[in-house]
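Question (not urgent): is this output format expected?
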Amino acid sequence: MNAPATVISKARPAPPDRSLGAILVDSGKLTVENAEQIIRLQKQQGIRFGEAAIQLGFLTEDDLQFALSHQYGYPYLRQGESPVTDEVVAAYQPYSPQVEGLRALRSQLMLRWFTGEAGGKALAIVSPGRFEGRSYLAANLAVVFSQLGERTLLLDADMRHGRQQQLFGLDNQAGLSTVLAGRGGSIPAQRVAGLIDLSVVTAGPTPPNPQELLGRDVFVKLLERLATAFDVIIIDTPGGAGYADAQTIGARAGGALLVARQNVTGLKSAGSFAAGLGQLGTTLVGAVLNHF
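Got this back:
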């Protein structure tokens, strides 16, 4: 379980320049003795470290790809070694078609919104109703932005049915609701082990007045504070049909990405919801059709 951490600075040290052997020893995949045998064979045959390790039977190709991803600053997780659920596919399957699609979406968002010029740092993930894939998309987008080296915060602003604590296996005793209610001075951002540039603020305990909390000036000030510490802020929201929370969050963030689910979201409801966001001054950055 990750302990809450106060956000204090955007700066972080440059990643260490580590060899494959050091990464694999530190992760427990190799012993120091194994590494020495690999190096001897590597020198004898004039081959690469990874080839020698596989030849000796100490590593699999999957082990090698995992180490290479960390050496080149593109971290991902391994099944069974993290509390993060399989639904966060970008954390586990960086070469899958789903994640390729997420990276393509990330590129579009970098060009259209996270430009540092006309765009902003916060983006609300919204949809007209529930069960349309907002939390899934928010979680996976946050992961792919962090893998790009952007200091990324995933903020769960769905204080009615928050899911990010479940997706990432995090503590939810403190979160957005406790901050907005004035029950904590620090921002309870939790780091996700293995994904060095990703932090999560969960929704926190369910309050009786989520819409009123989001309407307070403290939410605006919170986003301003977070913008000084992070490059990208992805905000998960409640469904827009039953509550006004998503519209409020979109207006505070300045930009929104609309999620529609195939064979679930009605065209009319999506259009009406998008129009309502626009009336509040929210920039609709784009729309995503979710097939999952």
